Amino acid sequence: MTFEFSAHVAPRDVDVSFTVGPGETVALLGPNGAGKSTVLAVAAGLLRPDRADVVLDGRPLTVAGEGRRRVQVPPHDRQVALLAQQPLLFPHLTVRDNVEFAPRSRGASRAEAAAVARHWLDEVSAGELADRRPSQISGGQAQRVAIARALAADPRLLLLDEPMAALDVAVTPALRQTLRRVLADRSAVLVTHDALDALLLADTVVVIEDGRMAEQGPTAEVLSRPRSAFAAQIAGLNILTGTWRTGSLTVGDRAVHGMVDGARPTEGGAATAVFSPSAVSVYREPPSGSPRNLLPARITEIEPQGDRIRVRAGALSADVTPQAVAELDLTPGTEVTLSVKATEVTIYGT
């Protein structure tokens, strides 16, 4: 099963293209308002784009564009299931009846629908909830039932719109493991803001910024070598982009030195530097001594991160001890110098 998506929605200024291969899960990452939910709405048949080629296993689901014969397969006939942030279970039906609804609506007999519901409820560890109403189960349990209901429709493509965003943090790990199990060998598109969701559930990441695809690639590669600001942000990494000149990355009027990963960037071409906040030291005055990258900055935010303190200076971050924050008297607005050794910086061509 291959899902090919290309669509332009002019009123929302979204223009995105990507492909989901057989048994592949693609994660759509991006800030709020980037266009991720618009993509899912087009894929599910809930939004008519201005231009599109949306094809599922060779079958056109949406075709649009000037001079073209429009195709718009209705949502119920697309063989696509959408799992939203909220479970949206039918409140007047039992859990079992909720899951049986999809096969029954496709013409399955009562016995066949019951067998399908039993299978998927057991698959998501919710079989014991079958006789309860949605008002009698927790939010995490309701989302498990919603997953079972979506899969009971036997979709060729599963769309997941931040399925864990509305859940308590205590139940998220268990549901993540459930999704990891049921998504194995199943084609899916997952919208998420969580790097862990992407790492554990997705084979490929597509980063969307301002309605356009900013980068795309294998999940581990994108999150360890991000080329977009948002991917670096959710991966918890610092990122600097600039031009490769005479053996270093030039950012504004400053040279940033690091270790080149892969092929050496082209002279005068675009390049990116990535480094961890834990590799950054903060000084009130520029330090001397061993060679290092020194970046003047102004602190914009200070926040706890476990036993460390995350010091943010615009787009850059440093993880330091509470003692260092107190000794340096760091507060928002303080002018500082961020220091990072060249051996801690990875540079690659973009």
How would you describe this structure in keywords?
9 helices; 2 domains; 6-stranded mixed beta sheet; Rossmann fold; OB fold (Dihydrolipoamide Acetyltransferase, E2P); alpha+beta; 23 strands; 350 residues
Task: Note down, in words, how this protein is organized.
The protein is of the alpha+beta class and 350 residues long. It has two domains: 3-224, P-loop containing nucleotide triphosphate hydrolases (Rossmann fold), CATH 3.40.50; 236-349, OB fold (Dihydrolipoamide Acetyltransferase, E2P) (Beta Barrel). The chain is 24% helix and 33% strand. The protein has nine helices and 23 strands. The chain has helices spanning 36-44, 95-105, 110-123, 139-152, 172-182, 195-201, 219-224, 229-234, 322-328, and strands at residues 3-9, 14-20, 25-29, 51-56, 59-64, 71-72, 80-83, 157-161, 188-191, 204-209, 212-218, 238-245, 248-251, 254-256, 259-260, 270-275, 281-283, 293-298, 301-305, 308-313, 316-320, 335-340, 346-349. It has a six-stranded mixed β-sheet, with helices on both faces. A hairpin with a 2-residue loop joins strand 20 and strand 21 (316-320). Helix 2 runs parallel beside helix 4 and helix 3 (110-123) packs across helix 4 (139-152). The two termini are 31 Å apart.
